[in-house]
Structures are given as structure tokens and as C-alpha cells.
Amino acid sequence: LKRLALARVESQRNKQNFNVAVTLIAGLLFFFLLLRQFKIRRALKILAKTDSLTNLANRRAFFANGYSYMERALKEQSELCVLVIDIDNFKQVNDNLGHDVGDKAICYVAELASETMRSRDILARIGGEEFLLVLPHEDSQSALKIAERSRTTVETTQMETIGFITVSIGIATWPTHSNDIDQVYKCADKALYHAKEHGRNRCVVAEPS
Fold this sequence. Notes:
It contains six helices and five strands, in the order ααβααββαβαβ. With 209 residues, it is an alpha+beta fold.
């Protein structure tokens, strides 16, 4: 009878231990599933704001940050510059050397532009061979110096397969050119168009509106 009672107690204990183990395993699995879901959501958020080719911010992220930078500049009563950077004769690179080489050229310019920017700046690829750079607390003359440094870096650095390429840069300032970040971008884009029309491989500051 004692052995039978002990056996019953041992059986109950084993069942309890088994139930605890199952509960722990289920809890761990649930935790890992939640963690995996969290990582997936975070990765999707990053992908939604990141250009897949260059790993820079994309157009959506740029304008989201641009508005926050503009609000900060408004509070601090400081200026904010927008630079539009475009690779010269990019269509010829794609047509003559192929899209793979064109993609390498885009990544190459993105890397060189990143080297000249500061931690507070934001660089984004907004499509094709065009990039946008926001420079908080900078006027047009300071932005022109930074743009010239970026342009010279690209111009004087040889790239494998292509050789030397150049970029044109348009510059506009908030609030000198507009009180809206979209309009500042359009002003910088017009300045870029002017640079393209007048020989490329140059930086142009937009005329005040």
C-alpha cells in the first residue's frame, strides 16, 4: 500500500513536472514568435523608409524628416538648405555599359556624398540617379561650399569600369526661397536644371523668389 501510494505521488509529481515543462516550452515559443513578429515589423518599417539599392533614406523618409527639420528650424529661427544632386549623363552610362554598372555608379555617388555630410544632415535617394541632401543651420553660401566639396570629390575619384563621372547640384534655402519644404525642393530642382543647361558638373544656387 505504501509503495502504491508512493507510486501515485510520484506519478502525480511527474505529471506536474510535465505540465510545467509544457507550459514553459509553450511560453518560450510564444515569446520567440512575438520577438520574431516584432523584428519583422521593425524590418518592414525600415524597408519602407530605406532605398534598397543604396541603403539611404528614400523619398518618403526624406520629406517626413524634412518637415521635422523645417519645424525645428522655425523654432530655432535658423536656415535650412536643400541640395538636389544628379549624376551627369547617366543615361549614357546605362545605355553603353548596362544597368548593373549604372547601379554601381549610383551606389558610388551615394557613398562619396555620405562621406562629405555631417551627422546632423540627411541624405536620401529620391529616384533614379537623383539624391536630396538637407543641411540644417546652413545658409546658401555655406551649402555651396559643401556642395562644391561633394562635386569635386566625385569628379576627382576614379570609378572602376566607368572611370570618372560628374554630378550637378542645385541649392535652395528655407525660408529664403520658400516657406514650404516641397517648394524649396522645387527651387533646388530648378537650380539643378540650370546647372545641367549650362554645362553640367557645377553647383548652382537658386535665385530668390
